[in-house]
Amino acid sequence: MSILIERARLIAKTVHLEETRRGGEPYFTHCDAVEEGVKDKDENTRCAAQLHDTLENSKNSDVIRKLIEEYFPYEVLFLVETLTHDKNIYYSRYIDVISNNPKALLIKFSDMIDNTKDINIPEKQFNKYHEACLQIIEKRKEVPKILKERLKIEDK
């Protein structure tokens, strides 16, 4: 593993240290899973996958933003900011922005795949992801088969 990816992993693990997933496992395992989903991609994409939730979940996102800016190529910060959902922006607009960036879209798909692996996914999250995937399909973009299956989206 590269130094940059190790650095991204350390920052993600630190930011998410006290957080847990629905099943009780440490939250940073999600970051590892999202990175695993893009493991065949370039280093910047893998770093952004590790860091994808750090700005949303950090108690001090300004400090995390400065760390990313200081220690990673600009593309990593750009991807992480693209993947950070500002709660003042409609989710559909957020998905529009992500779907126009191929690397951000791959990371978001990996995020969604990991978040839907649990059969007990909350209905609200299921519906949000279902609508997002339909929106992406409308833009003539391919959605991974596993996501279509989990979200009960049939090919037309």
Explain what this protein looks like in three dimensions:
The radius of gyration is 15 Å and the shape is globular. With 156 residues, the protein is an all-alpha fold. Helix 2 (28-36) runs antiparallel to helix 3 (43-51), helix 2 crosses helix 8 (102-115) and helix 3 (43-51) packs across helix 8 (102-115). The longest helix has 16 residues, at 123-138. It has ten helices and no strands. Helix content is 65%, strand content 0%. The protein has a single domain (3-150), classed as Hypothetical protein af1432. The protein has helices at 3-15, 28-36, 43-51, 54-57, 61-71, 74-83, 91-99, 102-115, 123-138, 145-150.
Helix content: 55-70%
Order of helices and strands: HHHHHHHHHH
The CATH homologous superfamily name equals Hypothetical protein af1432
Fraction of residues in β-strands: under 5%
Blueprint (SSEs and pairs):
Blueprint: H1 3-15, H2 28-36, H3 43-51, H4 54-57, H5 61-71, H6 74-83, H7 91-99, H8 102-115, H9 123-138, H10 145-150
Helix pairs in contact: 1-3, 2-3, 2-8, 3-6, 3-8, 6-8, 7-9
Short description:
By secondary structure, this protein is mainly α. It has helices at 3-15, 28-36, 43-51, 54-57, 61-71, 74-83, 91-99, 102-115, 123-138, 145-150.
Notable characteristics:
156 residues; mainly alpha; Hypothetical protein af1432; 10 helices
